[in-house]
Amino acid sequence: xxxxxxxxMPRIGDPAPDxxxxxxxxxxFRFSEWQGDSWVVFFSHPAxxxxxxxxxxxxxxxxxxxxxRLNVKLIGLSVDSIHSHLAWIExxxxxxGVEINYPIIADLDTKVAQLYGMIHPGESSTVTVxxxxxxxxxxxxxAIIYYPLNVGRNVDEVLRLVRALQTAxxxxxxxxxxxxxxxxxxxxxxxxxxxxxxxxxHRGKDYEVVDFYLxxxxxxxx
Length: 222
Description:
The chain is of the alpha+beta class. The chain has helices at residues 31-35, 51-62, 64-69, 82-96, 111-115, 155-171, 193-200, and strands spanning 20-23, 29-30, 39-44, 72-78, 104-106, 130-135, 141-147, 185-186, 207-211, 214-217. The chain has seven helices and ten strands.
């Protein structure tokens, strides 16, 4: 395992590494085939039958329809066995009344976790951190979030991030701090002297111009 720690970690803008694995939905799961033309939220959890991870898996399952409406598929991973995954899923269903309908990868040999840089030796050399990868339909990594072992993720933020990425793609804009669907978006800054003057003269009537480099506009959500 030690040699694999030197594998370059995937970065934003990199192609999402493809892989085959055993999951709760298939003993011969191929990531690229399963993804199809969907967005993907790919997340790791440190271990089965642990309290923080249990709350996360259940919350992702409860919010699965919200992700589906955004054309997003969910998939989880830990370095536990498929038998442990199946037992845990059944336990969560019995105890919390929630079915985990998305696949969970059983990564006993840590092959996929290493491929995606999910094991951070400074935090733990035996389990994954709480990683989140947002992957677009072209299989490009668009965002990465890491959480430590003792802090649960914010699923609202993961949804907000996906909506922001989709809105930026659809309308050639950016989103400002704390942006939420329905709020104003950021107009790309001007690229020529002429565009600077146009922006300063407020000729873009639909813009809220703070200065030539900072303007906002109303925008529909993608």
